[in-house]
């Protein structure tokens, strides 16, 4: 039974919230050290208003978790799990408590960490608030899932927006990502924009030259990797029939450029905004570099996605581009070979 | 056995299945109709999978007021069954057996009749459409339900399994189980001792013989 619970309800939850966890790991594990975590915990305990945000965030997390579990239960291939509603109360509670506890385990671990400082500061009222709200939300989650399983399942209808025009093909990826992985899109974009903002902020201090912004663009391009993986997966599986259509290489290249540019619209918009504010047309070069780096990553994912050498190749490409930036290599020298490789890929049969 | 009144199921597209009143005695009932006539919609609602308006009562148990007791009495096999690809049939049997209080002896009998032993432990992602249909049929028969609803049970399975399935349906029917079956395949259906035939057209019950 554990295997069923893990494969059917725990793994898909973490898969769907992968972007969120990647952002948490990046912020909590890379950008913050232990000392900062300790300082943040003490700050939260000393400021009850800030502390109130924790139950609110937990409520948001519970809501997302419940939405994902209910959406899974409503899927056609999950109809067999509607039988869980027929379980005896004790068995159903045991089955779901494992799933809920494991899906909340990172949050609960952080709350345990926070509880140490609550105990240290003797702020027991905050501790009681924290754990009571956690217990209430866990209980509520279980109750809602049990309710869902008891009654006939609401059908999931795919409703197409009432538009009179056909969506161009390069928008399909964004539409399907919006449908299936909204959290991933949101968090990737949030991380990308946060990074860009940080690089621009430090650049304005005057301590860095133009290459600093180019390095920032490289980092932002690499942040898009989960989205590029998802895009490639959809193109290879759901839209594989398109690969067999007799399309010209210009068509295929146009699609790739269109869809990749569409995915980076927030970052491009940010660059445009900064370009206007700083009256710097050089930001156009940064925009070209961003699309170039993302195209290079797209090529790498297409060709080496399944290969065990992919992490090494991605790291080698990062350092290669980093060295090129350090030595002030002109942007078109970077863009040209990547464009040639893109054309070559588009010219291949059953490619892109 | 099964009676429903003021049955109504509406879709956002405007399509609706409306059956004002119908009483079916114990036996094998065949539902016929063209593609998109509302057969599968009706069956899924009667199986308690998707909601519908109206009163549905199976041997004194109401779907709306006693959904759990009602669903315990039902077995359902979809026309195009799908399951999570990374699980195997053995995992699904474990889930359903606990829910339907199915015995080892019954599971063993069904696995032999439907010839699923060979692939029971393989991941479902590698199953053919016939294997998926056999798996769904096995799960529907588990726990000796009072009513078994089979949507296109004879499609995609081989001739030998079709014969075995006809025998199984006849045997369970003699033991008191009722069946609601839809099928576009006339061959195996002709071998069944059908109690009544319902014809559906555009979401309405056209005739009941």
From TrEMBL, chain A:
Entry annotated with the keyword Transmembrane helix: yes
Segments crossing the lipid bilayer: 48-66, 99-118, 124-142, 183-204, 253-272, 284-302, 314-334
Record bears the keyword Transmembrane: yes
Lineage top rank: taxon: Bacteria
UniProt keyword annotations, A-Z: Membrane, Transmembrane, Transmembrane helix
Protein name: ABC transporter permease
Native species: Algoriphagus taiwanensis
Lineage: Bacteria, Pseudomonadati, Bacteroidota, Cytophagia, Cytophagales
From TrEMBL, chain B:
Pfam families given in the database record: ABC_tran
GO molecular function (one): ATP binding
Annotated ABC transporter domain residues: 2-209
Sorted UniProt keywords: ATP-binding, Nucleotide-binding, Transport
Protein name: ABC transporter ATP-binding protein
